[in-house]
Amino acid sequence: xxxxxxxxxxxxxxxxxxxxxxxxxxxxxxxxxxxxxxxxxxxxxxxxxxxxxxxxxxxxxxxxxxxxxxxxxxxxxxxxxxxxxxxxxxxxxxxxxxxxxxxxxxxxxxxxxxxxxxxxxxxxxxxxxxxxxxxxxxxxxxxxxxxxxxxxxxxxxxxxxxxxxxxxxxxxxxxxxxxxxxxxxxxxxxxxxxxxxxxxxxxxxxxxxxxxxxxxxxxxxxxxxxxxxxxxxxxxxxxxxxxxxxxxxxxxxxxxxxxxxxxxxxxxxxxxxxxxxxxxxxxxxxx
Length: 287
Hints:
Layout: H1 3-7, H2 10-14, H3 18-27, H4 34-41, H5 45-55, H6 69-76, H7 78-93, H8 104-124, H9 132-138, H10 142-150, H11 152-164, H12 169-177, H13 181-191, H14 196-203, H15 215-232, H16 248-254, H17 261-279
């Protein structure tokens, strides 16, 4: 099976909420207005509540409370909204993956922290609209969800390999599948018609130096992923994988160095707690 085989027809397979698919279709039409999008999204009360909670959170820090989805669209923009709708939908879309194949609690903790750190690294780089890197970080491992969903037995083999060999997770995946979760994630987001910058950030988050376009976004998510892995190693949990260090090329792309790591840890903690509460539904068990 190739990444293309894995992703083919996946919109129907994993049954994203209808509103998420409809939003994607509407965003392809340049005549779509914020009011029209707000009307469609508002039909899904759960998604509406999560979106409003996100845009009123500490990520954005808007001076006044945003009460409606149409206002949120106006403030954060159509492209950003597309990623947030997908992020808010993905948590529940892939909620049926067996825990022995993928620990969903650890997965989303890692993803949320990577999103928070990604936004903070973007601020260090003075990236315009750095909030979009929260979405990129949040979705950087979405390929793991699809692989676990479609190939559970092979995913268990990868877990066993990681217990026995000193490999990074994406290296073990390449040995087993011939591709890795970053390849699948980038293709999946492309299938879902996400912006190219988001697709590239996910596809190249282990190898930012290979990205032809959007190298800065890929490097930011790469750095955020590594910083998150280092933070997780301090927890009393069995993560089963080695942490990929930050590639020198990534620091060079961003014009940064390791001196940013400790200050980012200090800033990420409070924001992470807020973000995790927003992203994970109440139906998820406590960690």
